[in-house]
Automatic annotation (TrEMBL):
Keywords: Membrane, Transmembrane, Transmembrane helix
Enzyme Commission number(s) from the entry: 3.1.3.64
Provenance organism: Sus scrofa
Protein's name according to its UniProt entry: Phosphatidylinositol-3-phosphatase SAC1
Positions of the SAC domain: 144-473
Amino acid sequence: MSNLNTAKVVVIVFLEVFISFGLGIYGFKFLLRHTTPEKFYVEACDDGADDVLIIDRVSTEVTLSVKKDIPPSAVTRPIFGILGTIHLVAGNYLIVITKKKKIGEFFNHVIWKATDFDVLSYKKTMLHLTDIQLQDNKTFLAMINHVLSVDGFYFSTTYDLTHTLQRLSNTSPEFQEMSLLERADQRFVWNGHLLRELSAQPEVHRFALPVLHGFITMHSCSINGKYFDWILISRRSCFRAGVRYYVRGIDSEGHAANFVETEQIVHYNGSRASFVQTRGSIPLYWSQRPNLKYKPRPLINKVANHMDGFQRHFDSQVIIYGRQIIINLVNQKGSEKPLEQAFATMVSSLASGMIRYIAFDFHKECKNMRWDRLSILVDQVAEMQDELSYFLVDPAGKVLTNQEGVFRSNCMDCLDRTNVIQSLLARRSLQAQLQRLGVLHVGQKLEEQDEFEKIYKNAWADNANACAKQYAGTGALKTDFTRTGKRTQLGLIMDGWNSLIRYYKNNFSDGFRQDSIDLFLGNYSVDELDSHSPLSVPRDLKFLAVRNLYVFHIVKSILSEDRDGASSP
């Protein structure tokens, strides 16, 4: 045996020992990727597993085999999951997870964040491409890598992250036998398009992991000497996904832009409790395209059948979640007023006993930094929240209470104002849950638990930042209140800075971001036979010349508007 082959064997043995050790600790399925010029071999490293997924780099055929079929000459690398495949100008690409970070353990299941990826070409060379095709392929690759660079991809090899605790409790034995990919809620599988080839072959599903995009944080907490796990999960929908200003309202199927399902979970002495809320764009046909103005005027489509899409949206929401308590936080004057009025009119016209509408002009009520007035809204919906209840299951698996509906909150972006309100409603639910579980004493307030309050506020602020970065390109506004319970001058300054960055990105770089998301999710497919490059669009020189004239004149208006309580997010 040559020295090279001996070294290769040593490396593989070391990796397999390391992987076996990792399995014992984390229950995580590691993989080895073996590469030859003709094929990719993906080896499952479970205890006793002999399966190997083979992807032919020429025919693109996907088959199953055994470890002995891996050629000794193959180059070996450890990977942590297959995100899927995508077709670009040069041909197919395999996307794999190369780095991950442990977020925590969820009922003895390990939850991971994917932190780095490789995009691997099936082709050995690019000599078959013209110069234009080569440049287009490079741009499409940059788009894929851009989406992958956005923080917030999560997965588990043993737990279904796409469903709430309540949905999972109402499943059949047949559902439990399904693979994670088959049973996943497709709204939240961000690599669903990338896995389309693997999903067509059930025998290879164990290699295909559904990946969630959003935010997950887990904390071990203690109150009154009683230890419990507190978990916050935000699941971004991949339907009508996109970026601020480019994607608003609903589509013909009733999918709302920037729809996020947020679940707060408590695990104490075997009992599990959860509280679910949703957010989503105002479910009408409307747009707000960037036009170099700080606040583009939203436009409601005057010819669309709004009731059709509106009813589709809420029909699906009622089926999934039950009763809908809408909390509309937009301004009730100025450019946002027509949207508020239209939303209220549609709810009235639908006349459904399952839907309740509440309008709360966030900026008017909290003008001059009177954020204590948010208690007006919390008190207004308190009785409704008690009626909705929360999900609770005892250590034996017996369901004690079900959540009968959700608060569906929105502002213009469904980011900053929305997150503030959601954190307040979630705290009220958590207060009730911890008292029911015996963690809090009768009459004890969650706000008085300083150590936990710090964890709680920071987690919700981190959730706000994650959702904002994914949709608007910057951290959230108003997080000084979420973190500290107070609105500060420094917070206003930071909001002004983030608003300035949002302005620039929304006008000058979000088109690329939107195209990248559409490519990643399969809303646009690359056709290498197309003689006209979709990327060859003449630039509007007038637009490029005047854009910078606006940037330096908006900072003062941003700060003054926020101080007066009139900023739009």
